[in-house]
Structure formats: structure tokens, C-alpha cells
Automatic annotation (TrEMBL):
InterPro entries: BCAA_transport, Leu-bd, Peripla_BP_I. It comes from the Bacteria. This is Amino acid/amide ABC transporter substrate-binding protein, HAAT family. Residues 52-397 form the Leucine-binding protein domain. Keywords: Signal. Pfam families: Peripla_BP_6. It comes from Paraburkholderia terricola. Gene3D superfamilies: 3.40.50.2300. The keyword Signal applies. The keyword Signal applies.
Length: 412
């Protein structure tokens, strides 16, 4: 940082200036001195005093995943406007639930807006598509999507990528454990025909095998499909004890509704991509008695008093419901809130190294995120490392039953 120098003209210079003043030339000289001094002062002003932290958000505000992105956008209005003594600007872009748009949004935030970090996207395919862009731009990204592939393995590209939602592996293991205790011997899977569905199926199949449960069918559907009758008929032909639905948002309501319409009486499990009230509204009574591993936020008031996420989850719920009304909270908003908590913890550390808006600050911010230890948030306790860019343990998941359009905590 340049030093401020004091300027005091020598006696000889003063006489010269006085003489020149008599010829009218001193005005130009003094103007030049003033301009130079002003430039020196501007250049030497401390960089941090003028800097602003910029956070970009790439969210699915329209399209099939809008029910995930809208709570995230609403939560962004609650994030702190000052961190570590610096003002914070949040720039929100809509990826329209489309991978190509997610890439374009990410490029714009990095090249034009020059953000220091990115939160998003809301869904797995979009988050995966953004990895190369943030790696090339050396800009830390905190994904709001589920797949472990977003952060695993932590290679040269994923070096810049973090996430807040529980991984599909964590949730698939919870489903297999719950199903096993209820005597399930066979399961069928129906999931979205995208990265979310494929990666969740891999984890479901792996943990099912560990619990000696046979996978007897595996079907796919598109987010925009109007019907899954064909897939459901194939599943019913195998007579599974349970069906696992690997989908997110309101499109995930189609398989359980079709299963119930066709008279299926077995257990139905969802993944944690359905943790909002829009899903409950769309699925209605057809989802009564179904289960999902979920964020603690969904049942915060029902959690044991010693659960590490309870206090912070209740605080977030109070803030969000003050904005959007009673019963409006969702897991997807909480993931954005937790991303804000990660940044609130990491930004002051990075500020000790460099000013916002610089490559050095982005690198320091990335390092600070990876160094997060013992940070409690609305989903659990975060302990990240060079090989773990999520940092949550099994306390971050709870089993929930849907009863009459309500989330009901299952203690076992």
C-alpha cells in the first residue's frame, strides 16, 4: 500500500512561484501541483476502504426447478449486507433450470460482475455444468444441489467448489437403514433422467446391497413428462416392498401419485429434493405415509433439545416466515442461509490477506472456506477439509414422514 507523503515547498521554490505569479503563470503551475497531489491521494487511499464484496447467485427461478430456486432467492434478501466491515452486494441471476443458461450466468458473474464468490445452482445438472467455469475463473462456488459428484473427488477443478446440502450418499444410506428396519427385502427405483437421478440411483443401489435389499427395477422420467404410467406399470410388475423416487421439486410428485392411483400399498421414499411446501401441495393426499431423509430445518421444532441444528434452524425459520409468512420455510432456503453463514465466517479471514475484487482475495476466500471447522448451521456442524468440501456428518439428516401435508419427525 503506498504511503501518504506530505508536501511542503522549499523557500526557493516559494519565491519562484511568487515571481511566476506576477506573470500569471503560477496559476497553471499550482493547478498542476494540485492535480498531482489529488491523484497521489486517490492512489494511496487504502484499498479496503473502497472495496465491496460481491456475491453472485445462480438460481433456478423459472422452469421445472423453480420451487427450489425461489426460496433460495427469498433467503438471499435476508443475508448480511456487511461482513467483516465491508459492504456486500448480492447479484441474483435466473438459470431457468437449464444447464446452458447456468453456464452463461456463471461466466457473466465472473467476467462482467467480477464477483468474489458464487452461490448456486439450485439443481445438480446445473451445478455440475458450472464447475469448469468457476475453476477457470478461480472463483469459489457454494452449490445448493445434492449430488456428491459436485464436490467429489476434490480434484483440480473441484478445488474451487463447495456445497451445503447433504449428499445423495448420506440420504440413500438413511433410506436403506429405515427400509431394512421395516423388513423391506426388495425395492424399485424411479428417478429423473439426469445427473440427479443417475447419481442417486447409484447410491441407493449401493446401500441397498449393504442391507441385503434387492433392487428389482430401475426406471427414469424427464422433469417435464406429463405421465409416468409406463414406468410405474413396469415397477408394479416386480411387486417391490418399497419404491424410491430420485427426483427434486414438484416433478417428484408424479411417481407417488401414479403409484397410489395404481393401487400400490408398499413403502414409498423420496430423496431430500422434495423438502418444500410446493411439493406437498402438488402431491396432496397421495404422499400421506411416505418417507424422506431431510434437512433438520423441516422439523426443527420437533427435534430433540440437544440437536446441534435446532437453535439456528428455528432462528432461520423465524426470519424467513417473517418475510414470507407462516409455514413458508423450505430446506432449499436453508441451504442458501447456510451458504451465507459459510461466507460470513470465511470473508473476514480472507480480508486479512487481500482486498475484495482481486484474485488474491478469491484464493484466500477459497482457502478460508476449506478451513471451516466447528461451524454450526441450520443443518448441523460443518468441518471441512482438503478432501471434504461439505463437512457435514450424519447429524445433518433426519427421517421424516409426510402426514396430512405436514412433515413429521421420526425418532427412529
Amino acid at each position: 500500500m503506498p504511503r501518504l507523503e506530505s508536501f511542503e515547498p522549499a523557500t526557493g521554490d516559494a519565491r519562484a512561484c511568487a515571481a511566476k505569479a506576477r506573470t500569471g503563470k503560477s496559476r497553471l503551475a499550482l493547478q498542476g501541483i494540485a492535480a498531482g497531489l489529488g491523484a497521489a491521494l486517490a492512489a494511496s487511499w487504502p484499498a479496503l476502504a473502497l472495496a465491496q464484496v460481491k456475491i453472485g447467485l445462480v438460481l433456478s427461478l423459472t422452469g421445472p426447478a423453480a420451487s427450489l430456486g425461489i426460496p433460495a432467492r427469498d433467503t438471499a434478501t435476508l443475508l448480511p449486507r456487511q461482513i467483516g466491515g465491508q459492504s456486500v452486494e448480492y447479484i441474483v441471476l435466473d438459470d431457468a433450470s437449464d444447464t446452458t443458461q447456468a453456464v452463461q450466468d456463471t461466466k457473466k458473474l465472473i467476467s462482467e460482475n467480477r464477483v468474489d464468490a458464487i452461490i448456486g445452482s439450485s439443481i445438480t445438472p446445473n451445478s455440475l455444468s458450472m464447475i469448469d467455469v468457476v475453476a477457470d475463473g478461480e472463483t469459489p462456488m457454494i452449490s445448493l444441489a445434492s449430488s456428491a459428484k459436485i464436490i467429489e473427488p476434490v480434484d483440480a477443478r473441484r478445488h474451487w467448489v463447495f456445497k451445503t446440502p447433504q449428499t445423495d450418499a448420506m440420504m440413500a444410506s438413511a433410506i436403506a437403514e429405515h427400509a431394512s428396519t421395516r423388513g423391506v427385502k426388495t425395492i424399485a427405483f424411479i428417478g429423473q433422467a439426469d445427473a440427479l437421478g443417475e447419481t442417486f440411483y447409484v447410491e441407493v443401489a449401493k446401500f441397498a446391497q449393504l442391507h441385503r435389499i434387492n433392487v428389482v427395477a430401475s426406471e427414469r422420467f424427464n422433469r417435464t413428462d406429463p405421465s409416468v404410467t409406463g414406468q410405474v406399470l413396469k415397477i408394479l410388475a416386480t411387486k417391490p416392498d418399497a419404491v424410491v423416487v430420485g427426483a427434486a421439486g414438484t416433478p417428484a410428485a408424479l411417481p407417488p401419485k401414479t403409484l397410489r392411483e395404481r393401487g400400490y400399498k408398499g413403502l414409498i421414499y423420496h430423496n431430500h429434493g422434495v423438502g418444500n411446501n410446493d411439493f406437498l401441495r402438488v402431491c396432496g393426499a397421495d404422499c400421506n405415509g411416505t418417507f424422506l431423509p431431510a434437512s433438520p430445518v423441516l422439523v426443527a421444532a420437533q427435534l430433540p433439545a440437544d440437536h446441534p441444528a435446532k437453535r439456528l434452524a428455528l432462528d432461520y425459520i423465524a426470519r424467513f416466515e417473517a418475510l414470507r409468512g407462516p409455514g413458508s420455510v423450505s430446506a432449499f432456503g436453508s441451504y442458501t442461509w447456510d451458504a451465507g453463514m459459510l461466507l460470513s465466517n470465511a470473508v473476514p479471514i480472507a480480508l486479512k490477506t487481500a482486498a475484495p475484487g482481486t484474485p488474491e482475495f478469491r484464493r484466500a476466500l477459497r482457502d478460508a472456506l476449506e478451513g471451516t471447522r466447528g461451524l454450526a448451521d441450520t443443518n448441523g456442524v460443518v468441518n471441512m477439509s482438503a478432501t471434504d468440501h461439505l463437512g457435514l456428518d450424519q447429524r445433518a439428516r433426519v427421517m421424516v414422514e409426510i402426514r396430512n401435508a405436514k412433515w413429521v419427525y421420526q425418532s427412529r
